[in-house]
Design a protein that fits this description.
By secondary structure, the protein is α/β, with parallel strands linked by helices. The chain has 13 helices and 13 strands. The chain has a single domain, classed as Ureohydrolase domain (Arginase, Chain A). GO terms for molecular function: arginase activity; manganese ion binding.
Length: 372
Protein backbone atom coordinates (compact mmCIF):
# COMPACT_ATOMS: atom_id res chain seq x y z
CA UNK A 1 0.00 0.00 0.00
CA UNK A 2 1.11 3.52 -0.74
CA UNK A 3 -0.23 7.04 -0.46
CA UNK A 4 -2.47 8.38 -3.19
CA UNK A 5 -3.22 11.73 -4.77
CA UNK A 6 -6.58 13.46 -5.20
CA UNK A 7 -6.51 12.51 -8.90
CA UNK A 8 -7.69 9.03 -7.93
CA UNK A 9 -11.15 10.33 -7.06
CA UNK A 10 -12.01 10.42 -10.78
CA UNK A 11 -12.71 6.70 -10.46
CA UNK A 12 -15.48 7.11 -7.89
CA UNK A 13 -18.34 6.62 -10.35
CA UNK A 14 -17.19 3.26 -11.59
CA UNK A 15 -18.54 1.43 -8.55
CA UNK A 16 -22.32 1.50 -8.91
CA UNK A 17 -22.63 0.04 -12.39
CA UNK A 18 -19.65 -2.30 -11.92
CA UNK A 19 -21.21 -3.88 -8.85
CA UNK A 20 -24.43 -4.28 -10.82
CA UNK A 21 -22.50 -6.15 -13.49
CA UNK A 22 -20.92 -8.35 -10.84
CA UNK A 23 -24.27 -9.21 -9.31
CA UNK A 24 -24.72 -11.98 -11.86
CA UNK A 25 -21.57 -13.71 -10.70
CA UNK A 26 -21.31 -12.69 -7.05
CA UNK A 27 -23.65 -14.25 -4.46
CA UNK A 28 -25.22 -12.17 -1.72
CA UNK A 29 -22.59 -12.27 1.00
CA UNK A 30 -24.40 -11.26 4.15
CA UNK A 31 -25.94 -14.64 4.98
CA UNK A 32 -24.22 -17.76 6.25
CA UNK A 33 -26.25 -20.09 4.08
CA UNK A 34 -27.03 -19.90 0.39
CA UNK A 35 -29.63 -21.22 -1.99
CA UNK A 36 -29.21 -21.25 -5.74
CA UNK A 37 -31.52 -21.74 -8.68
CA UNK A 38 -31.00 -24.88 -10.79
CA UNK A 39 -28.54 -24.27 -13.59
CA UNK A 40 -27.36 -26.02 -16.72
CA UNK A 41 -23.81 -25.66 -17.95
CA UNK A 42 -22.86 -25.49 -21.62
CA UNK A 43 -19.67 -26.87 -23.08
CA UNK A 44 -18.27 -23.36 -23.07
CA UNK A 45 -18.69 -23.14 -19.33
CA UNK A 46 -21.65 -20.74 -19.40
CA UNK A 47 -24.22 -21.35 -16.70
CA UNK A 48 -27.82 -20.52 -17.62
CA UNK A 49 -30.09 -20.07 -14.66
CA UNK A 50 -33.61 -21.43 -14.77
CA UNK A 51 -34.75 -18.07 -13.43
CA UNK A 52 -36.14 -16.06 -16.34
CA UNK A 53 -33.95 -13.24 -17.58
CA UNK A 54 -30.75 -14.05 -15.68
CA UNK A 55 -27.49 -15.56 -16.84
CA UNK A 56 -24.22 -16.02 -15.00
CA UNK A 57 -20.76 -17.11 -16.04
CA UNK A 58 -18.26 -19.52 -14.61
CA UNK A 59 -15.27 -17.32 -13.80
CA UNK A 60 -13.11 -20.25 -12.68
CA UNK A 61 -12.56 -21.90 -16.05
CA UNK A 62 -13.87 -25.24 -17.33
CA UNK A 63 -12.67 -27.08 -14.20
CA UNK A 64 -13.46 -24.96 -11.12
CA UNK A 65 -12.08 -26.08 -7.74
CA UNK A 66 -14.22 -28.91 -6.31
CA UNK A 67 -16.60 -28.11 -3.49
CA UNK A 68 -16.23 -30.12 -0.30
CA UNK A 69 -18.79 -32.81 0.37
CA UNK A 70 -21.02 -32.42 3.41
CA UNK A 71 -19.10 -35.23 5.14
CA UNK A 72 -15.75 -33.60 4.45
CA UNK A 73 -17.06 -30.23 5.55
CA UNK A 74 -17.89 -31.48 9.03
CA UNK A 75 -14.24 -32.44 9.53
CA UNK A 76 -13.02 -28.99 8.53
CA UNK A 77 -12.59 -26.07 10.87
CA UNK A 78 -14.90 -23.13 10.30
CA UNK A 79 -13.49 -20.63 7.81
CA UNK A 80 -15.23 -17.29 7.34
CA UNK A 81 -14.82 -15.61 3.97
CA UNK A 82 -15.12 -11.88 4.55
CA UNK A 83 -15.48 -9.37 1.73
CA UNK A 84 -14.24 -6.04 3.05
CA UNK A 85 -14.30 -3.37 0.29
CA UNK A 86 -12.40 -0.75 2.27
CA UNK A 87 -11.23 2.22 0.26
CA UNK A 88 -11.22 5.18 2.65
CA UNK A 89 -7.98 3.96 4.21
CA UNK A 90 -6.17 4.49 0.92
CA UNK A 91 -8.51 7.25 -0.33
CA UNK A 92 -8.75 5.50 -3.69
CA UNK A 93 -12.30 4.58 -4.82
CA UNK A 94 -11.08 1.86 -7.18
CA UNK A 95 -10.20 -0.30 -4.15
CA UNK A 96 -13.92 -0.81 -3.56
CA UNK A 97 -14.42 -2.31 -7.01
CA UNK A 98 -11.22 -4.32 -6.65
CA UNK A 99 -12.64 -6.06 -3.58
CA UNK A 100 -15.87 -6.90 -5.40
CA UNK A 101 -13.96 -8.28 -8.39
CA UNK A 102 -11.72 -10.30 -6.07
CA UNK A 103 -14.81 -11.78 -4.44
CA UNK A 104 -16.19 -12.80 -7.83
CA UNK A 105 -12.91 -14.43 -8.88
CA UNK A 106 -12.17 -16.33 -5.66
CA UNK A 107 -12.70 -20.13 -5.77
CA UNK A 108 -16.05 -21.41 -4.44
CA UNK A 109 -16.39 -22.01 -0.72
CA UNK A 110 -18.69 -24.12 1.45
CA UNK A 111 -18.03 -22.00 4.51
CA UNK A 112 -19.90 -18.95 5.77
CA UNK A 113 -19.52 -15.71 3.83
CA UNK A 114 -20.12 -12.16 5.00
CA UNK A 115 -19.46 -8.61 3.92
CA UNK A 116 -18.41 -5.60 5.95
CA UNK A 117 -20.66 -2.64 5.25
CA UNK A 118 -18.60 0.10 3.64
CA UNK A 119 -20.26 3.18 2.16
CA UNK A 120 -19.42 3.09 -1.57
CA UNK A 121 -17.52 5.99 -3.14
CA UNK A 122 -20.46 7.24 -5.21
CA UNK A 123 -22.41 7.87 -2.00
CA UNK A 124 -19.51 9.57 -0.24
CA UNK A 125 -18.73 13.31 -0.44
CA UNK A 126 -15.26 13.75 -1.90
CA UNK A 127 -12.58 14.61 -1.02
CA UNK A 128 -12.66 12.77 2.28
CA UNK A 129 -12.61 14.85 5.45
CA UNK A 130 -9.49 14.78 7.59
CA UNK A 131 -9.95 14.35 11.36
CA UNK A 132 -7.02 14.41 13.81
CA UNK A 133 -4.68 14.21 10.85
CA UNK A 134 -6.34 11.09 9.39
CA UNK A 135 -8.46 10.93 6.25
CA UNK A 136 -11.92 9.48 6.95
CA UNK A 137 -11.07 8.65 10.57
CA UNK A 138 -14.66 8.00 11.78
CA UNK A 139 -15.46 5.97 8.66
CA UNK A 140 -12.39 3.78 9.10
CA UNK A 141 -13.09 3.24 12.79
CA UNK A 142 -16.70 2.31 11.97
CA UNK A 143 -15.73 -0.30 9.37
CA UNK A 144 -13.09 -1.77 11.69
CA UNK A 145 -15.68 -2.10 14.46
CA UNK A 146 -18.11 -3.65 11.98
CA UNK A 147 -15.51 -6.17 10.81
CA UNK A 148 -14.73 -7.24 14.38
CA UNK A 149 -18.46 -7.55 15.14
CA UNK A 150 -19.00 -9.77 12.09
CA UNK A 151 -16.08 -11.98 13.12
CA UNK A 152 -17.41 -12.31 16.66
CA UNK A 153 -20.87 -13.14 15.34
CA UNK A 154 -19.56 -16.01 13.20
CA UNK A 155 -16.81 -17.04 15.64
CA UNK A 156 -14.70 -18.73 12.94
CA UNK A 157 -11.51 -20.70 13.43
CA UNK A 158 -10.05 -19.18 10.28
CA UNK A 159 -10.71 -16.01 8.28
CA UNK A 160 -10.15 -15.11 4.64
CA UNK A 161 -10.29 -11.36 3.94
CA UNK A 162 -10.98 -10.13 0.42
CA UNK A 163 -10.03 -6.43 0.62
CA UNK A 164 -10.05 -3.36 -0.36
CA UNK A 165 -7.01 -1.50 0.81
CA UNK A 166 -4.64 -2.80 3.48
CA UNK A 167 -6.73 -1.30 6.29
CA UNK A 168 -9.12 -4.22 5.71
CA UNK A 169 -6.78 -6.55 7.62
CA UNK A 170 -6.78 -4.62 10.89
CA UNK A 171 -10.17 -5.65 12.30
CA UNK A 172 -10.20 -9.34 11.24
CA UNK A 173 -6.57 -9.95 12.21
CA UNK A 174 -7.06 -8.27 15.60
CA UNK A 175 -9.94 -10.71 16.16
CA UNK A 176 -7.63 -13.64 15.35
CA UNK A 177 -4.85 -12.29 17.56
CA UNK A 178 -7.30 -12.18 20.47
CA UNK A 179 -8.80 -15.59 19.68
CA UNK A 180 -5.36 -17.20 19.69
CA UNK A 181 -3.80 -15.04 22.42
CA UNK A 182 -2.88 -18.13 24.43
CA UNK A 183 -0.99 -19.52 21.43
CA UNK A 184 2.15 -18.32 19.68
CA UNK A 185 0.24 -16.23 17.15
CA UNK A 186 2.29 -14.56 14.42
CA UNK A 187 1.78 -12.20 11.50
CA UNK A 188 3.42 -12.60 8.08
CA UNK A 189 2.98 -9.39 6.08
CA UNK A 190 3.74 -9.93 2.37
CA UNK A 191 4.03 -6.38 1.11
CA UNK A 192 6.44 -4.05 -0.65
CA UNK A 193 5.86 -1.64 2.28
CA UNK A 194 5.71 -2.32 6.04
CA UNK A 195 2.50 -0.42 6.99
CA UNK A 196 3.88 0.57 10.39
CA UNK A 197 3.05 4.29 10.27
CA UNK A 198 0.64 6.46 12.24
CA UNK A 199 -1.01 9.86 11.84
CA UNK A 200 2.21 11.65 12.81
CA UNK A 201 3.81 10.12 9.72
CA UNK A 202 1.00 10.09 7.15
CA UNK A 203 -2.72 10.79 6.81
CA UNK A 204 -3.93 7.57 5.13
CA UNK A 205 -4.95 4.76 7.48
CA UNK A 206 -3.95 1.93 5.15
CA UNK A 207 -0.37 2.67 6.18
CA UNK A 208 -1.19 1.85 9.85
CA UNK A 209 -2.30 -1.82 10.22
CA UNK A 210 0.96 -3.51 11.24
CA UNK A 211 1.77 -0.89 13.84
CA UNK A 212 -1.78 -0.95 15.22
CA UNK A 213 -1.78 -4.76 15.45
CA UNK A 214 1.25 -4.43 17.71
CA UNK A 215 -0.57 -1.88 19.86
CA UNK A 216 1.34 1.06 18.40
CA UNK A 217 -0.08 4.19 16.82
CA UNK A 218 -3.34 6.11 17.02
CA UNK A 219 -5.54 5.28 19.98
CA UNK A 220 -8.75 5.21 17.90
CA UNK A 221 -7.48 2.02 16.25
CA UNK A 222 -5.18 0.64 18.94
CA UNK A 223 -7.93 0.56 21.57
CA UNK A 224 -9.83 -1.91 19.35
CA UNK A 225 -6.85 -4.30 19.31
CA UNK A 226 -7.38 -6.35 22.46
CA UNK A 227 -4.33 -8.61 22.15
CA UNK A 228 -1.36 -6.83 20.53
CA UNK A 229 1.14 -9.00 18.68
CA UNK A 230 4.77 -8.82 19.90
CA UNK A 231 7.07 -7.24 17.32
CA UNK A 232 9.29 -10.33 17.20
CA UNK A 233 6.32 -12.37 15.96
CA UNK A 234 5.73 -10.00 13.03
CA UNK A 235 7.62 -10.39 9.76
CA UNK A 236 7.35 -8.12 6.72
CA UNK A 237 8.40 -10.10 3.65
CA UNK A 238 8.99 -8.72 0.16
CA UNK A 239 9.84 -5.21 1.35
CA UNK A 240 12.90 -3.36 0.11
CA UNK A 241 14.38 0.13 0.42
CA UNK A 242 12.13 1.29 3.28
CA UNK A 243 11.80 5.01 3.96
CA UNK A 244 13.60 6.48 6.97
CA UNK A 245 10.35 6.73 8.92
CA UNK A 246 9.45 3.12 8.05
CA UNK A 247 12.87 1.89 9.14
CA UNK A 248 12.67 3.85 12.38
CA UNK A 249 9.40 2.14 13.34
CA UNK A 250 10.68 -1.28 12.24
CA UNK A 251 13.71 -0.88 14.50
CA UNK A 252 11.69 0.50 17.41
CA UNK A 253 9.06 -2.26 17.25
CA UNK A 254 11.47 -5.15 16.64
CA UNK A 255 9.74 -6.24 13.43
CA UNK A 256 11.54 -8.91 11.40
CA UNK A 257 12.16 -8.27 7.70
CA UNK A 258 12.74 -10.59 4.74
CA UNK A 259 13.66 -8.93 1.46
CA UNK A 260 12.50 -10.03 -2.00
CA UNK A 261 16.00 -11.17 -2.99
CA UNK A 262 15.96 -13.69 -0.16
CA UNK A 263 12.62 -15.08 -1.32
CA UNK A 264 13.68 -15.26 -4.98
CA UNK A 265 17.04 -16.89 -4.23
CA UNK A 266 16.33 -18.92 -1.09
CA UNK A 267 12.59 -19.50 -1.15
CA UNK A 268 10.96 -19.62 2.27
CA UNK A 269 14.16 -20.35 4.21
CA UNK A 270 14.31 -17.05 6.09
CA UNK A 271 10.58 -17.07 6.88
CA UNK A 272 10.71 -20.67 8.09
CA UNK A 273 13.66 -19.86 10.35
CA UNK A 274 11.65 -17.02 11.88
CA UNK A 275 8.67 -19.34 12.46
CA UNK A 276 10.92 -21.90 14.14
CA UNK A 277 12.85 -19.37 16.23
CA UNK A 278 9.66 -17.74 17.53
CA UNK A 279 7.81 -21.04 17.93
CA UNK A 280 4.85 -19.68 15.97
CA UNK A 281 1.94 -22.12 16.08
CA UNK A 282 -0.80 -19.98 14.49
CA UNK A 283 -0.24 -17.53 11.65
CA UNK A 284 -2.16 -14.81 9.84
CA UNK A 285 -0.85 -13.94 6.38
CA UNK A 286 -1.42 -10.66 4.58
CA UNK A 287 -0.86 -10.47 0.82
CA UNK A 288 -0.74 -6.96 -0.57
CA UNK A 289 -0.63 -7.54 -4.30
CA UNK A 290 1.88 -4.71 -4.67
CA UNK A 291 4.51 -7.18 -3.45
CA UNK A 292 4.30 -8.52 -7.01
CA UNK A 293 6.27 -7.05 -9.88
CA UNK A 294 4.17 -4.77 -12.08
CA UNK A 295 6.16 -6.13 -15.00
CA UNK A 296 4.29 -9.43 -14.69
CA UNK A 297 1.02 -8.41 -13.01
CA UNK A 298 -0.78 -5.27 -14.08
CA UNK A 299 -3.64 -4.79 -11.60
CA UNK A 300 -1.47 -2.73 -9.26
CA UNK A 301 -1.25 0.89 -8.16
CA UNK A 302 1.86 1.38 -10.25
CA UNK A 303 0.00 0.21 -13.37
CA UNK A 304 -2.31 3.24 -13.54
CA UNK A 305 -2.14 4.13 -17.26
CA UNK A 306 -3.10 7.75 -16.56
CA UNK A 307 -0.46 8.41 -13.93
CA UNK A 308 1.85 11.24 -15.00
CA UNK A 309 5.42 10.32 -15.81
CA UNK A 310 7.51 10.13 -12.67
CA UNK A 311 4.47 9.99 -10.37
CA UNK A 312 5.83 6.93 -8.54
CA UNK A 313 9.48 7.92 -8.49
CA UNK A 314 11.20 6.73 -5.34
CA UNK A 315 8.33 4.47 -4.24
CA UNK A 316 9.49 0.84 -3.84
CA UNK A 317 7.77 -1.57 -6.21
CA UNK A 318 7.20 -5.27 -5.73
CA UNK A 319 9.78 -7.67 -7.13
CA UNK A 320 8.09 -11.06 -6.75
CA UNK A 321 6.15 -13.23 -9.17
CA UNK A 322 3.21 -15.53 -8.51
CA UNK A 323 5.50 -18.57 -8.38
CA UNK A 324 7.59 -17.04 -5.61
CA UNK A 325 4.53 -16.29 -3.48
CA UNK A 326 2.84 -19.66 -3.97
CA UNK A 327 6.06 -21.56 -3.26
CA UNK A 328 6.63 -19.60 -0.06
CA UNK A 329 3.04 -20.11 1.10
CA UNK A 330 3.20 -23.87 0.53
CA UNK A 331 6.34 -24.12 2.63
CA UNK A 332 4.91 -21.96 5.41
CA UNK A 333 1.59 -23.83 5.48
CA UNK A 334 3.47 -27.08 6.03
CA UNK A 335 5.22 -25.76 9.14
CA UNK A 336 2.52 -23.85 11.03
CA UNK A 337 -1.25 -23.48 11.18
CA UNK A 338 -2.47 -20.71 8.90
CA UNK A 339 -5.61 -19.25 10.51
CA UNK A 340 -5.90 -16.02 8.56
CA UNK A 341 -5.27 -14.99 4.98
CA UNK A 342 -5.99 -11.59 3.48
CA UNK A 343 -5.63 -10.28 -0.06
CA UNK A 344 -5.68 -6.55 -0.68
CA UNK A 345 -5.11 -3.74 -3.15
CA UNK A 346 -6.32 -5.28 -6.40
CA UNK A 347 -6.63 -2.33 -8.79
CA UNK A 348 -8.23 -3.39 -12.10
CA UNK A 349 -7.44 -0.30 -14.17
CA UNK A 350 -7.88 -2.09 -17.51
CA UNK A 351 -11.25 -3.56 -16.49
CA UNK A 352 -12.50 -0.09 -15.61
CA UNK A 353 -11.17 1.51 -18.79
CA UNK A 354 -12.55 -1.26 -20.98
CA UNK A 355 -15.95 -0.92 -19.35
CA UNK A 356 -15.93 2.80 -20.12
CA UNK A 357 -14.89 2.02 -23.71
CA UNK A 358 -17.90 -0.31 -24.14
CA UNK A 359 -20.18 2.58 -23.24
CA UNK A 360 -18.96 4.42 -26.33
CA UNK A 361 -19.95 1.69 -28.82
CA UNK A 362 -23.15 1.80 -30.92
CA UNK A 363 -25.72 -0.95 -30.19
CA UNK A 364 -23.53 -2.28 -27.39
CA UNK A 365 -24.71 0.61 -25.23
CA UNK A 366 -28.53 0.94 -25.40
CA UNK A 367 -28.15 4.62 -24.51
CA UNK A 368 -25.62 5.31 -27.25
CA UNK A 369 -28.02 7.50 -29.26
CA UNK A 370 -28.50 9.77 -26.27
CA UNK A 371 -24.77 10.40 -26.23
CA UNK A 372 -24.67 11.73 -29.81
Amino acid sequence: MRSFSAKAFSYARLIASSVTCLAAVTPTTTATSETTAPTSTSAAGTQHSSTTGTMSYNLHGPNPPPMLSAAAKTKEKKTLRLTYPSWQGGTLPLYHFGSQLLTALAPPTNGPVAQVTVTPPELTPLPLKKTKGINALPENVATMESAIAVCKQHNPDNIVVLGGDCFAELGPFSYLADKYKKEKFGLLWLDAHPDVLNSKDWCNAHTYPVGALMGKGDKEFVELVKSPIPGSRVMVAGMHHPSKRDQRHIDDYGVRVCGPDSIVNNGAAEVLKWIKDEGITHLAIHLDLDVLSDKYFRMLYFSDPDAPEGAHKGVPRGQLRFKHVTSLLKAVSAKTQVVGFGITELLPWDVYNFREFLKELPLVNPNYAAKL
